[in-house]
From TrEMBL:
<dbReference type="GO" id="GO:0046983">
    <property type="term" value="F:protein dimerization activity"/>
</dbReference>
<dbReference type="GO" id="GO:0005634">
    <property type="term" value="C:nucleus"/>
</dbReference>
<keyword id="KW-0539">Nucleus</keyword>
<dbReference type="GO" id="GO:0003677">
    <property type="term" value="F:DNA binding"/>
</dbReference>
<keyword id="KW-0863">Zinc-finger</keyword>
<dbReference type="InterPro" id="IPR007021">
    <property type="entry name" value="DUF659"/>
</dbReference>
<protein>
    <recommendedName>
        <fullName>BED-type domain-containing protein</fullName>
    </recommendedName>
</protein>
<keyword id="KW-0862">Zinc</keyword>
<feature type="compositionally biased region" description="Polar residues">
    <location>
        <begin position="1"/>
        <end position="11"/>
    </location>
</feature>
<keyword id="KW-0238">DNA-binding</keyword>
<dbReference type="GO" id="GO:0008270">
    <property type="term" value="F:zinc ion binding"/>
</dbReference>
<dbReference type="Pfam" id="PF04937">
    <property type="entry name" value="DUF659"/>
</dbReference>
<dbReference type="InterPro" id="IPR003656">
    <property type="entry name" value="Znf_BED"/>
</dbReference>
<feature type="compositionally biased region" description="Basic and acidic residues">
    <location>
        <begin position="720"/>
        <end position="731"/>
    </location>
</feature>
<dbReference type="Pfam" id="PF02892">
    <property type="entry name" value="zf-BED"/>
</dbReference>
<feature type="domain" description="BED-type">
    <location>
        <begin position="15"/>
        <end position="72"/>
    </location>
</feature>
<feature type="region of interest" description="Disordered">
    <location>
        <begin position="707"/>
        <end position="731"/>
    </location>
</feature>
Length: 731
């Protein structure tokens, strides 16, 4: 338990040892003004003791915390139990001394009674009786308190042993059932443990029949209720229909269909497309059936990946209905930009050398330990939502660890090791001391960083990205210009790649219209319209509003928006341009222009990127299986429906808390690394001699190597594992 309390030690007073400091921070450097890290309530006075009472749920002096995790609450309660026992022990020792002194005084009073008169003797006896009765009552209370404290102590000691036994039991279940270790990152993993703990001893886990019967039925109903709740908003905000294509190692294809709206994303179904994935006509038939299920009048944007057959089928679908747009996934397009940039000779050479560094480090236990010791337990491998984003993020991490790696490969420990004399070790050391390598890394990242930032923005949980993507991409190109000091010769080829992908793959009239209707962009002094933006706006008016009279009204009302007339010009509307989501701003300040308001809300409520969910191919085996029982197939489809919608329901909460995943992803474990970066840690068979086994490798720093988005490289957010902080083991 004590290891956990190191997490926020930097926010505690110097030499602070009280475990309560792991769960609160000093405000303005004062011990008497403390902020709870869970509910963010600030306590004035009472110090860390008051915070612990707040966390433990002790009523009286302070209100209990409603947001504290159950395991933290239990730990603090146990800690306070130890404190009470220690205090009672000291009181008992002190009371023992006082009791001896009282007996001496009573003996003295008894001796003196003989010299007192009858009244004084009676008063003395009465006083002595009261003292003895009071002492007896206090002794009884102390015995009761000691009994309770002793019981708490036994429970606390027992619970520490039980925690270890529980950990082993959970681990055995994972190992025996073959559950992927990444399942420990599930939002519901800790919630399951808390619920079981709340029931107490004797809880019986649900049976196979319960899991496949009544509990599954309940889960289906909850998922359907979630889906129905989101559907209610589609008529007002419209929705984006997302097509996510997955291909496994046997070239089998599964298409997942999702529907996005500002309230959340819902999973519809999965389809086996292995036999039709290259046929635009066959895909069109599948896409058409899904549009009918969602409702053509609700769809505003149909989003696919960059595969030619999928793009063609999407365009044919949009031409058939003429009431919505088809666009390609923004994340795929940015990944395509990064991929093509990586094909240039200089960048390809840089990435090959970076890959050689990670392959060497992650296949040698001793070297990996030495690296993690130098970097404070942090990892080089970084995982993002796409392959090339992961690659360039990993390159960015290598550059940020430049000094650590240089010191590592020039240290006495390295020089004295056998690895420094091996061919692979010599090759990597030469790369890391080569100034040209680092110079080319910097130039490569000057191009990649702005694109990674754009990719991060697409996952923003607060505001639908379609109203910003046009501006974000323009700013990305300007950032590249600035990074190269406007020396066009050094970056013009990369800008051509970005422009080509944008124009040929990504650009949509919807993006242009959303750019124009976004108040945080439009009212900026630097905003300027052009022919592409104007035509995009007109295309959206004609496509999304089929009524000609309404189209005329919209074009006449746009002038009021441009000149900030009426409610558009209210002081509160001026403030809201930056702080509010664009669609929310229109819903508040465009009530006098209902036709334009409806159009703007439907445009600005869309996404331009496919939601990525963790791949669970074992769940898709039933979709791809050719031998099926009809009833069992229905149940398995429902299981998939629950699986995705549980994830999607909690996704906004998780992404709001952090851009990274919960827990540590061990870059030695290919399950955690996933297919995007598996080749960056694979064994090339160049290792010579003996080395440490995987069991001797240092555990990576908690949350220091999780999935990152964009250029989220702020080391100040790193903290130790809640359950383990041994960063230098085996180093």
């Amino acid at each position: 338990m004590a290891l956990q309390y190191k997490e926020n030690q930097s926010l505690a007073p110097p030499r602070a040892t009280d475990p309560g400091w792991a769960h609160g921070t000093m405000v303005n450097g004062g011990r008497q003004k403390i902020k709870c890290k869970y509910c963010h309530k600030i306590f004035l006075g009472g110090g860390i003791s008051r915070l612990k009472q707040h966390l433990a749920g002790e009523r009286g002096n302070v209100a209990p915390c409603e947001d504290v995790p159950e395991y933290v609450k239990v730990q603090i309660q146990q800690h306070l139990g130890f404190k009470v026992l220690e205090k009672l022990k000291k009181q008992k020792e002190a009371n023992g001394t006082k009791t001896s002194h009282m007996s001496y005084l009573q003996d003295r009073e008894g001796d003196d009674d003989e010299d007192l008169g009858p009244l004084k003797k009676m008063a003395s006896r009465r006083r002595g009786k009261n003292i003895l009765e009071g002492t007896s009552n206090r002794t009884k209370r102390r015995k009761r308190q000691n009994f309770v404290a002793s019981r708490n102590m036994r429970q606390s000691f027992g619970s520490q042993e039980n925690i270890e036994l529980a950990d082993v039991a959970v681990a055995r279940f994972f190992y025996e059932a073959g559950i992927p270790f990444t399942a420990a990152n599930s939002y519901y993993f800790q919630k399951m443990a808390d619920s079981i703990a709340a029931v107490g001893p004797g809880y019986k886990m649900p049976s196979y029949n319960s899991l496949t019967g009544k509990l599954l039925n309940r889960g289906i109903q909850e998922a359907r209720d979630y889906s129905a709740e989101l559907r209610k908003s589609w008529e007002v905000t419209g929705c984006s229909l997302l097509v996510d294509r997955w291909v496994d190692g046997f070239d089998r294809t599964v298409i997942n269909f999702f529907v996005y709206c500002p309230k959340g994303t819902v999973f519809l179904k999965s389809v086996d497309a292995s036999d039709v994935t290259k046929s635009a006509e066959a895909l069109l038939s599948i896409f058409d059936s899904v549009v009918q299920e969602v409702g053509p009048k609700n769809v505003v944007n149909f989003v696919t990946d960059t595969s030619p057959s999928y793009k063609t089928a999407g365009k044919l679908l949009a031409e058939k209905y003429k009431t919505f747009f088809c666009s390609t996934c923004g994340a795929h397009c940015i990944d395509l930009m990064l991929e093509e940039i990586g094909e240039s000779d200089e960048v390809k050479d840089v990435l090959a050398k970076a890959k050689r560094i990670t392959q060497f480090i992650y296949n040698n236990g001793w070297v990996l330990n030495l690296m993690r010791k130098r970097t404070g337990g942090r990892d080089i491998i970084q995982l993002a939502r796409t392959r090339f984003a992961s690659i360039f993020l990993t390159l960015q991490t290598i550059v940020s660890f430049r000094e650590h790696l240089h010191q590592m490969f020039t240290s006495a420990s390295w020089m004295q090791s056998s690895f420094s004399k091996q061919r692979a070790g010599i090759e990597v050391a030469e790369i890391l001391v080569d100034p040209l390598f680092w110079s080319l890394c910097d130039q490569t990242l000057n191009v990649a960083k702005p694109l990674l930032s754009a990719l991060q923005f697409m996952d923003c949980p607060d505001k639908p990205p379609v109203g910003y993507i046009y501006d974000v991409m323009e700013k990305a190109k300007k950032s590249i210009n600035v990074a190269f000091n406007d020396k066009e010769l050094n970056y013009i080829s990369h800008l051509k790649v970005i422009d080509h992908v944008w124009q040929e793959e990504f650009h949509s009239p919807l993006h242009a219209a959303a750019h124009y209707l976004n108040p945080s962009v439009f009212y900026q002094p630097s905003f300027s319209s052009n022919k592409i933006i104007q035509k995009g706006l007109l295309d959206c008016i004609e496509t999304l509003e089929p009524n000609l009279s309404a189209q005329v009204m919209i074009t006449s009302q746009i002038k009021c928006y441009e000149e900030a007339v009426g409610d558009f010009g209210r002081p509160v509307a001026l403030r809201g341009r930056e702080s509010l989501a664009p669609a929310t701003w229109w819903s508040l300040y465009a009530v006098d222009y209902p036709e334009l308001q409806r159009l703007a809300i439907r445009i600005l409520s869309q996404t331009c990127s496919i939601i990525r969910c963790e791949r669970r191919w074992n769940l898709f085996e039933h979709v791809l299986s050719k031998k099926r029982n009809r009833l069992e197939q229905q149940r398995l489809n429902d299981l998939l429906f629950i699986h995705y919608n549980l994830y999607l329901k909690e996704r906004p909460i998780e992404t709001t808390k952090s851009w990274r995943t919960r827990g540590t992803l061990d870059s030695v474990c290919l399950e955690a690394v996933d297919v995007n970066m598996a080749d960056w840690v694979e064994d090339l068979g160049t290792m010579e001699g003996e080395d440490l086994s995987w069991m001797d490798v240092t555990v990576p720093h908690e949350r220091a190597c999780g999935i990152r988005q964009g250029n989220d490289m702020d080391d100040s957010n790193d903290s130790t594992d809640d359950r383990s902080s041994d960063l230098t083991k085996g180093s």
